[in-house]
């Protein structure tokens, strides 16, 4: 289990596009002989919806 905190959603998405990350999932999760049977990547925040909306 990993618990990571990212500065922004954009930085997390850029991380997910890295070749090393894509290669890891291809080899260990997606491949029929991969050693991870099931993976669940969740993105969440503890901030309420619209928390940074401009105050009117």
Task: Show the helix and strand layout.
Elements: H1 9-16, H2 19-30
Structure in words:
The protein has helices spanning 9-16, 19-30. The protein has one domain (1-56). The termini are far apart. The longest helix has 12 residues, at 19-30. It contains two helices and no strands. The chain has 56 residues and is mostly helical. This is ABM domain-containing protein.
Task: Summarize the amount of helix as a percent range.
Answer: 25-40%
Mind describing the biggest β-sheet? none
| Weakly predicted, low-confidence segments | none
Oligomeric category: single chain
Total number of strands: 0
Terminal CA distance: 41 Å
Taking all Cα atoms into account, the compactness measure Rg is: 16 Å
**H/E series, N to C?**
HH
Shape summary: elongated
InterPro entries: Dimeric_a/b-barrel
Organism: Vreelandella olivaria
Protein name: ABM domain-containing protein
Task: Please name the defining characteristics of this protein.
36% helix; mainly alpha; Dimeric_a/b-barrel; single chain; ABM domain-containing protein; 56 residues
């Amino acid at each position: 289990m990993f618990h990571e905190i990212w500065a922004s959603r954009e930085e997390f998405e850029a991380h997910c596009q890295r070749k090393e990350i894509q290669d890891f999932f291809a080899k260990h999760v997606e491949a029929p002989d991969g050693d991870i049977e099931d993976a669940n990547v969740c993105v969440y925040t503890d901030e309420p919806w619209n928390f940074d909306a401009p105050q009117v």
